Amino acid sequence: DVARYLRDKLPVKKTTLLSHKVEYFNAAKAVDCLLESPWATGKPKVEQLFTTRESVVEFMDTLLQHKFFHRAKKIIVTKPKKKKDDAGDSESTPKPTREKKKKDNDSGAANEGAEEKKEVEEIKKKIKLDMHLEQFFVDANEPYVWIYDPVPLKAWIIGTLLVVGAVAVCLFPLWPRTVRDYVYYLSVATAFLLGVIISLAFLRQVLFVVIWACTLGRHHFWLLPNLTEDVGFMESFWPIYQ
After folding, report:
1. What is the pLDDT of residues 61-113, one digit of tens each?
2. Cα(99)–Cα(77) distance, rounded to whole angstroms?
3. How far, in Å, are 83, 91, 94, 106, 179 from residue 88 at the CA level?
4. 51 pLDDT higher than 80
5. In Å, how far are 10, 150, 227, 241 from 138, measured between CA atoms?
6. What residue ranges do the domains of the chain occupy?
7. What is the CATH code of the structural domain delimited by 1-80+123-153?
8. Which residues pair with 128 in a beta bridge?
9. Keywords on this record (predicted)?
């Protein structure tokens, strides 16, 4: 329960570890989170497990030993940003313009230092993680990568419904006669509707080409313009033409 509470309440960040996408959390924030949890505040019907930061650290170290997460170390990757090279600008600039620029540069000699700083390449920083050789919990700004990933209740419900549905389809010959008749009529109606939509999609293309050719490209007539667009079912049939 405590591990699930941490997994749900503790903020995480995403990065890469050994070319894998992982989620990691801050150790100090994890300790703060547990000190504010029901297991530290002593709410009714909840056993008080944590009284000090040391007790939380001891508990987190136990979770680490049971492979709920593992310790990592940050690696800051720096990547220089390329700046546009203006070396060829002076050659392509007309002579009067170059003379004007020279005067402007002479008058602004006091700002040369600031301009030189702007020309320095900016450094882009990106944080990656690597395995730490010392696997124990430290109450500090240390990254710890989650291994524990509980399956949410929604996934269990969807999986159960899929299994029940697959079994029900396999037992179709054992369904009552009336239910099988309704399913048959429903499947025929669905197939008919699908055939109508495909026929309309083909017809609108033919109609567009015929009108476009007869008018020498002056008219672009679309029947049901939203039929193949990413819209709702009712919106696909409106407007009727465009």
Report:
1. 999 999 899 999 888 877 665 554 444 444 444 444 444 444 455 544 445 45
2. 44
3. 14, 6, 12, 21, 80
4. yes
5. 17, 24, 60, 68
6. 1-80+123-153, 177-237
7. 1.10.10
8. 75
9. Endoplasmic reticulum, Membrane, Protein transport, Translocation, Transmembrane, Transmembrane helix, Transport
